[in-house]
Amino acid sequence: MVSSQSKGKPAKGKPASEGPPVGRRVILGLLGLGAVGVVTGRVTQDGLARVLGPIENRDPTGLVSLFPVGDSFRFYSVTGSVPSRSAADYRLTVSGLVDHPQTLTMADLAALPQTSFTSDFQCVTGWRVRQVEWSGVALARLLDEVGVRAQAKAVHFTSLDGTYTESLTIEQARLSDVIVATSMLGKPVTHDHGGPVRMYVGPMYGYKSIKWLSGIQLTEAVEVGYWETRGYDVDGFVGHSNGRDDEPTG
Ligand SMILES: Nc1nc2c(c(=O)[nH]1)N[C@H]1C(S)=C(S)[C@@H](COP(=O)(O)O)O[C@H]1N2
Ligand SMILES: [Mo]
Q1: Do 60 and 105 share a domain, yes or no?
Q2: Is the confidence at residue 87, as pLDDT, over 50?
Q3: Nearest ligand (C-alpha, residue 213)
């Protein structure tokens, strides 16, 4: 399934930024409200529904879905705005229970062996983009680089947005389709998709794939992440957790 430098079919999905410009602006304008909806729950979601009219799909993972059809990426952020980093300014810190803590630049990441493959991206709410091209550094490779100490049992991820977090067990982190992604859809990861660097956790629902990755910390135990504290499974394997594994309904 996963092979280094494999050439798969071209990705079918399109990033949200290639979607209709009007819808795009609407979404950006709603980001703040989306975040409030997360905190205050139903009332604000209903408020949004009043503003927007009938909504087919109320999306608990960050935003009300505005796109009428499935099979395309939807832009998610639980925060209203996220500081952007140019490739030149980007830094990734790897710390915690490691022998060699590091701060990596994009050039450092590019200098490590690269992994490329094609794999679906699926949100827990049901939409799925098939055959997305991913590339970057296998997390397992990066862990080897820093030297994981024996007492480390989990990996904790932080985001430049200052709010979103995620975690994996060491075993999950070492799966071959878990990568520190610098490219998706055949080009550098765009800001909206979490660029310049995001995680891609292939076997799990989209909420595990943290965007705007800023830090990787080795810890003694799994620290429950953003959506997990709000009800989603910590082990978010597609088809084996409390999400949906059916076809996108739009
Ligand atoms: N920092 C951050 N990472 C995040 C999220 C988020 O809101 N903030 N949303 C998650 C969810 S629920 C999904 S489905 C994907 C969406 O990725 P996309 O915006 O590239 O479509 O990002 C995941 N990573
Ligand atoms: Mo999601």
Answers
A1: no
A2: yes
A3: 1
